[in-house]
């Protein structure tokens, strides 16, 4: 049952290394996901503003705009701030991991990424997203538009993520 919920998710993979993008995309497609790729952070943001995704897999070390900058932009963008992000990085040190989490990343996986662990983390992130989406829908359905807008503007959070007014 849980496996069925995670099938067909739309994932964006942002990594400047072409081999990493191809290997990760192939692995995710074999799991039943639809995958789009971006070779840098700037392009990833452009794609996320045009298309809807269920999850972003984000490398930290990229040209033009690194992963930290992407997370900072997403945190400030009402459209993108609730999109789950799993960071995949070869950066060493707890300070990098902490910074990613503080900037809104859902999880952090060191490279090379273990495929079994990746599948489990994606499943957990997609499940949390599904629950947050249900919470948003309940607020949208049962709160007046004014209350939903006030909640949205004040940054009120349900389950750790902000409620989005429609």
Supply the key terms:
disordered C terminus; alpha/beta; globular; 166 residues; single chain; 51% helix; disordered N terminus
Explained architecture:
The protein has 7 helices and 7 strands; from the N terminus they run H-E-H-E-H-E-H-E-H-E-H-H-E-E. The protein has 166 residues and is α/β, with parallel strands linked by helices. Strand 1 (10-14), helix 2 (18-30) and strand 2 (34-38) form a beta-alpha-beta unit. Helix 3 (41-50) runs parallel beside helix 4 (67-76). It is globular and about 50 Å long. It starts with a helix and ends with a strand. The model is unreliable at 1-6 and 158-166 (pLDDT under 50).
Overall morphology: globular
Please state the average pLDDT score. 87
Q: Class by helix and strand content? A: alpha/beta
| Beta strands, count | 7
End-to-end Cα distance: 30 Å
- Counting copies of identical and different chains, the oligomeric state is single chain
Biggest beta-sheet profile: 5 strands, parallel
**Low-confidence residue ranges:** 1-6, 158-166
Radius of gyration: 16 Å
**Strand arrangement, major sheet:** 2-1-3-4-5
Share of helix among residues? 40-55%
Listing every helix as H and every strand as E from the N terminus to the C terminus, the arrangement reads HEHEHEHEHEHHEE
Beta-strand content:
15-25%
**Helical stretch count?**
7
